[in-house]
Every structure is written in C-alpha cells, then in structure tokens.
C-alpha cells in the first residue's frame, strides 16, 4: 500500500488520543489525585490533543470500588466534575471492556453525558459481544471504536474475518492494538495495510495503540500513520501498563500540525509525572518487559518480577522461554 504521508507531511485527519488516565491507571489502580486529573485535562486542552480517555467504564458489581480509584469506573458525574460541560475542542472518551462493563446500566444517552466516544476493547473471540456494545452506544449518539487486543496472537484468517465483521458494523474506528509490545515496524506495515483496506472498503478510521516493551511504540505509531492510520494513542511520559505506550511528548513533537503544542505537556511532566516517580510508581521500558515482548507474552509475569525487585534476568528469560514452549 502506498504511503499516505512523509516525515514532513501535514495530515489534517490525524487525531491524537491521550490514554494516560486509562492505561496509566493500570500502574497505580487508578489512584490519581483530582489535581493530577485536572492538570492532565488542561495540559491536553492547551496542547491541542484531540481526545482524552478518562478511564474504564467498569462494572461496580464486578470490581470492588474500595480497591480502585474513581477512573476505573469513570462515571459521567466524576468526569463532569473535571470538565464541566467541556465546551472545548477536546473530546472525551472512556473504554468499555467486553465482559467487564454493565453498558446498558452505566452508559447514558450522549445528550446526558460529557463523553463523546466509547472505545470497546475486545479479543477476536468476543467480537460479537463487542459489536453489541458498539451498536447500543451508536444508537445513544456516541462515536465508537473497536480495539482488537493482542492482535500479535491472531492468525491472518481469523483477523480477516474479524475485520470484515467489524467493517459491516456501525463502528467508526478500528484499532490495531499491540498489547504485548511484540510487533516490529515491518509487521505493523502489513497490519496497517490490512486494516486500511477494510477501512477504505467500509469508510472506517483506523487507529493504533502501541506498547513499548521493545522501545518501538513511537516507531510503530509513526510507521503506521505514514500508511494512513489516523487515530494515534499515546500517554504522557509513556505512563501505562508495564513498559508503557507511545509517549505523548514524542508524538506531539513529531506531528506537523501547528495546532499541537508540546510545552503544556512538558510542564505537566515537571509538575505531576515526576511526583508519581517520587512516590515510587514504576513503569516504562525495562529488561523484564523486553523479554515478554520478544516472546509475545502478556506482561503479567514481568510486572510480578519487577514488583519483587528481582534482577535475575537470565533465569527469568529461561522461565519465560520454557513457559512459552508449552
């Protein structure tokens, strides 16, 4: 597929989606202070970011509220306490995980909510359930996305079938999600071509959500955007589960649209992100995440390894390698 842009190209179709609260919440159980959230909102607003994801719309029947911060549940009331009526150019999104959300109970009509977009996270085998959520939210007036997780574990035939089914749905955007940070730019180009073919056939936007296990989240993001992918997920200072994601400050510094301004994000890092590090919150590229990424494995073992302050990397690699062999 022919590239849609070069390194110096201006692409008005590009949308930057900030996932700092949602993916970053997986690092600290969503225990962000109200000031952190407000500062992030205004940093995104001043930086020209297009969407801010406020967290998950998770089921309070499934998850104990006492064990999580409010952004695990991201209610309209809590979001409105930060954004008011959000009479700005920055749109608001939340994520609904298939099987972990009471969407018919907890998602109100768009006319009653500060949220603009519902992002539905799914594995290939749960796509019918994902599309039930998408169709429900579409009827309520929301923009919708389908984020196919762990695509690095999917075979071509299943992925082709999944894209065809989603393409025929009312979803607005389909996401490539490198959940394990295992994919390389060459693989991303092939995936982008496949997704974009579906997008062109059914008039869908295509998005990218990358993880940084092999320090390729930024490279994979800009590689796919030159192919035509337009919805770009990022997190400030790469704050996200395990190795984190494509850093917002890198992405905004790269994009050529003059609406984007890196300075407010840098100030947010100075004033808020550094405090998280001082409090002992740990995330970002490290050897354990490199190893799970290289072996195309979920980072849960690396997260446990890191939490135990272990440094026996060779033994850990041998353990992962043996585990992956079965």
Concise synopsis of the structure shown:
It contains 13 helices and 8 strands.
Our estimate of the beta-strand percent is 5-15%
Overall structural domain count: 2
Order of adjacent strands in the largest pleated sheet: 1-2-3-4-5-6-7-8
**What percentage of residues falls in helices of 4 or more residues?**
40-55%
Number of H- or I-type helical stretches: 13
Mean pLDDT: 96
Could you tell me the CATH topology label of the largest domain: TIM Barrel
**Which geometry do the CA atoms define?**
globular
User: For the record, what is the CATH homologous superfamily label of the largest domain?
Assistant: Aldolase class I
What structural class do you assign from the helix and strand content?
A: alpha/beta
The description of the largest β-sheet is:
8 strands, parallel, barrel
The string of secondary-structure elements, in order, is EHHEHEHEHEHEHEHEHHHHH
Radius of gyration computed on alpha carbons = 19 Å
Named at the architecture level, the CATH assignment of the largest domain is Alpha-Beta Barrel
Quick tags:
2 domains; 13 helices; 326 residues; 8-stranded parallel beta barrel; TIM Barrel; alpha/beta; single chain
Question: How does this structure look, described?
Answer:
The protein is α/β, with parallel strands linked by helices. It folds into two domains: 15-278, Aldolase class I (TIM Barrel), CATH 3.20.20; 287-325, no CATH class. The protein is 43% helix and 14% strand. The protein has 13 helices and eight strands. Strands 1-2-3-4-5-6-7-8 form an eight-stranded parallel beta barrel, surrounded by six helices. α8 links the parallel β7 and β8 (231-234). α2 packs antiparallel against α10 (263-278), α6 (156-167) packs parallel to α7 and α7 (185-202) runs parallel beside α8 (217-227). It is globular. It starts with 14 loop residues before the first strand and ends with a helix.
């Amino acid at each position: 597929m022919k590239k849609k842009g070069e390194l110096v190209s201006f692409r008005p179709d590009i949308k930057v989606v900030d996932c700092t609260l949602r993916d970053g919440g997986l690092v600290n159980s969503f225990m962000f202070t109200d000031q952190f959230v407000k500062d992030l909102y205004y940093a995104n607003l001043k930086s020209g970011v297009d969407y801010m994801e406020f967290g998950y719309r998770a089921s309070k029947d499934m998850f104990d509220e006492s064990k999580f911060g409010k952004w695990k549940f991201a209610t309209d009331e809590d979001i409105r306490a930060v954004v008011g009526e959000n009479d700005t150019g920055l749109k608001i999104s939340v994520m609904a995980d298939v099987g972990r959300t009471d969407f018919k109970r907890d998602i109100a009509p768009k006319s009653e909510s500060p949220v603009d977009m519902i992002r539905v996270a799914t594995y290939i085998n749960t796509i019918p359930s994902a599309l039930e959520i998408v169709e429900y939210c579409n009827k309520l007036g929301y923009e919708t996305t389908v984020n196919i997780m762990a695509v690095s574990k999917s075979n071509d035939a299943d992925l082709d079938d999944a894209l065809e089914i989603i393409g025929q749905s009312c979803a607005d955007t389909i996401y490539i999600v490198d959940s394990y940070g295992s994919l390389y730019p060459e693989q991303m180009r092939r995936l982008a071509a496949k997704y974009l073919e579906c997008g062109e056939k059914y008039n869908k936007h295509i998005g990218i959500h990358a993880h940084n296990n092999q320090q390729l989240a930024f490279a994979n993001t800009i590689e796919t955007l030159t192919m035509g992918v337009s919805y770009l997920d990022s997190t400030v200072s790469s704050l996200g589960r395990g190795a984190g994601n494509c850093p917002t400050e890198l992405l905004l510094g790269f994009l050529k649209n003059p609406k984007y301004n890196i300075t407010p994000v840098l100030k947010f890092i100075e004033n808020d992100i550094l405090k998280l590090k001082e409090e002992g919150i740990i995330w970002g590229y490290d050897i354990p995440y490199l190893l799970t990424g290289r072996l195309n494995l979920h980072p849960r073992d690396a997260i446990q390894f890191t939490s135990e302050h272990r440094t026996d990397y060779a033994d850990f690699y041998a353990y992962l390698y043996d585990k992956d062999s079965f």
